[in-house]
Amino acid sequence: MVFSIAYHFLHNAAGAEEVAQDVFLELFKRLGTLESREHVTFWLRRVACHRSIDHARRNKIAAAEVSWDQLPEPSGPASENDPMRTRRLQQMIARLPEKMRMVVILRYQEDAGLEEIADMMKIPLNTVKSTLHRAHAMLRAKAEQAMGVKA
Amino acid sequence: MKRIGLLLGLLLALQMPAAAQDWDPGGTLKKLAAKASKTVDVTLDQSMLQFAGAFLDPKDPDQAQAKKIIAGMKGIYVHSFEFDKDGAYSDEDLAQLRAPLKEPEWSRIVNVRSKSDNQNVEVYFRKDGEKFKGLVVIATEPDELTFVDIEGPIKPEDIMRLGGHFGIPNVEVGQDSSAKKGESK
Amino acid sequence: MNPFDEELKRALQRVDPPAGFADRVLARTARAERKNHASASKWTWFFGMGGLRWAAACALCVLLAASGAIYEHDLQQRRRGEAAKEQLMLALRITGSKLQIAEQSLQELDSAGQPRR
Lengths: 151, 185, 117
Hints:
The complex is a heterotrimer of chains A (151), B (185) and C (117). Helix content of chain A is 68%, strand content 0%. Chain A is built from seven helices and no strands. Chain B has 185 residues and is of the alpha+beta class. In chain B, a hairpin with a 4-residue loop joins strand 3 and strand 4 (119-128).
C-alpha cells in the first residue's frame, strides 16, 4: 500500500522505496499511539501521501517532463485490457499536478472515500470533489485523444 | 519550613502503605532483591489486573477461579527471594517488613511453622470495620523469603479457595505432613 | 463504476515493493533502534526481547501493510495481555502455595490437639 502510493505518485521505484522506508520507520516510533487497525491504515495512507509529495518537491521531480502530446502514438486502437494502454494511463496520471495526482491515486488505488481523502490531504471536501472531477475529465479526454479509443 | 520537613520525614519513615501501590517497608524488599540469587517479582495494580483479567479463559477452571478472585482486587504484589545460603536475611529485615502491620487496622490471623519444611508463614488481614481491605503473607525459610501484598476487598474464603487450584493440591488432614512446594520460580 | 473508472483502477493497481524491501526496512529500523539505545538510559525491554520484538514487529508490519491489513497493534496488545495473565497466575500460585502451607500446619496442630498460636 505505502510503496504503491509512493510509486504511482513518483513513478520511480527508488524514490518510492525511500518514501516507504521513511513511513515505516515513523510507524514504529508511533505504534503505541495508534489505537486500531483502521487508525493504522489511515495513518499509513496519510503519511505516505504527504511524504510522497514532500519527496517530489525536495527532488524537484516535475510532473510533466514529457508533455502528453509527446507521448508516442499507438499503432492501432488499444483495447481496454491492453497492458500498453494501462502503461500509458499510468504515465498520464504521473503527469498530473501533484494534488490532483494524489487525489486520483487515493481514490482509485486505495478506494478511499472523498471525506477520507479530504482528511488525509488536509484539503476541503469540495476541493477533493472538484479536483477528482477535473482529473477524471482530463484523463479521459487525453486517453481518447492519445489512444484512439473512446474511454 | 523545618517543621514541615520533619513531618514529611516522619511520614516517610513510617512508610504508610499507599492505597494499591507496591509496598516496600523500610526499603527491605529492595535490599533483599540485591542479595537474592533468584527473584520473582510480580506487580499488578488495578488496571493491570483488569487488563490481565480480560485474557483469562473462562473455560479453564484455574483461570475461571482466578477471575472470581481478582474481581474487585486493587492490586497484587508478590516478591519472592531465594538465597544461596541460609541466614541471608536478618531478624531486623523481618521486623521492618512487619512494622507497618502493627497498625490497628491490621490483624495477624495466622502464624505457623511447618516443621517438615522449616517454613514459617504469617498471614495478616487489613480490615475497615467488617470489610476486608487487604492481605499480607510473609513466608520464610532459612534460604527463602516471600512477601505477598494483596490490596482490595479480599475475603479469607476467596484466598483459601486458591488451594485445589493452580496446581496446588488441597491438603487433607492425615496426609503426609511434608507439604509439597507448589510455588513456581 | 463506468469502464474508464475500471481502467483507472487497473492502472493504479497496487504495486508490490521490490525483493528485499522488508530486509532493508528491518535493517534501517535496527540502526535507528541502536542509535536510540546508545543514548537512552538502561530500559528493561518487555520480557527482554526488545530488539527481536522490534524486528519481528517490523517484518510483520511490512508484510501486512503490503496486503493492506495491519494487525500489529492488536498482536502487541494480545502479547501484553497474555504476559500479564501469566504473571497473575504465577502470583496466585505463589500466594496459594504459602497459604496452603499455613492451612496444613494449622490442620496438623488441630489434629495433634495443640493450641494454635
